[in-house]
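EI: anyone free to look at a 338-residue chain?
SC: sure, send it
EI:
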Amino acid sequence: MKKILAGTALLLCLTPMAQAAGKLNLYVWSESISPALIEKFSKENDVAVHVDGYTSNEDLLTKLQAGASGYDISTPSQHFLKIMIDQGLLDNYGANTLKAYDNIDPRWRNQWWDETQGYSIPIAYGTAGFVVNTDLYKGPTDSLKYFFEPEGELAGKIAMLAQPDEVIGAAQLYLGVPFCTEDSAEMKKVLDLLMAQKPSVAVYSSDSIASRLGSGEVSAHFWWDGEELKARAGGAPFQMAMTKEGLVGWIDSMVIPKGAPNRENAIKFIEFMSEPENATEQMNYYAHSSPMKTVTEKVVYTKEKAPELYPDVPVEFSRTCSPAAQDLVTRVWTQLLQ
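SC: here you go
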């Protein structure tokens, strides 16, 4: 997702360890899980919940590859989830046998990242694209052209993310270059586009996006739908561009790392988070779409209030690429930032 939030790893311990019969250690996207739900689960199950936060899929992968992480649940995005399954880093906990599986919106079941649905239950999904400060930029936003080939008031006032996944994905959408291509000539087109854009890019950063965009330091910033939505709901003059070429999609899922010390509590938590009432609370807190069944009348972010969560343009999900394709992405990004 995804999604890199400002700040360092988040630590929550809502129930003192010594006062609870059980334990549960989460390593999830920073600030992604509703504190109210953590507290509710802790009280209902007499489990002390400890939460650490990461800010990139790469950080999570490195942690799990090191082994003996001590964590019971993590929430990787789809393309990294596939890598973790292939590398034997995750527990096949029979997700498709749980009640939680029945609560998944059918369109998100048994997808390519977990075809047997043995390893994961989805928790949130969304998109990444360009967001504008409408006080500063009043021009068209219906094409990626205005951001990858900025002119006039956008020149020098664009900001991009610090990681390549979704930025390069968006460039590929604009150019019609397939995701995970192994064609170096096609990726040269991506590099040329990003290099031509570079003079207009004020910064490549995934931190402090709301303040950078709100202060007028930049007029447009690559960002995620839920973060933009929360800022806009708080009064910020932001708008996510619905570009005709499409948006880059992500979906995060609850997994159990191999060797998790509190596996049964992890399964209880996954079941708990997947109940419609709790999935609704999670969506209302996180401001990203829920892949689970929700209580419709309790959903805060309806299509009328949150159109960014219901895009009417194509959405292309980041994929798990071959080593050759990933090497091309890395080479493009390295050359761009030199």
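EI: The longest strand covers residues 121-133.
SC: 👍
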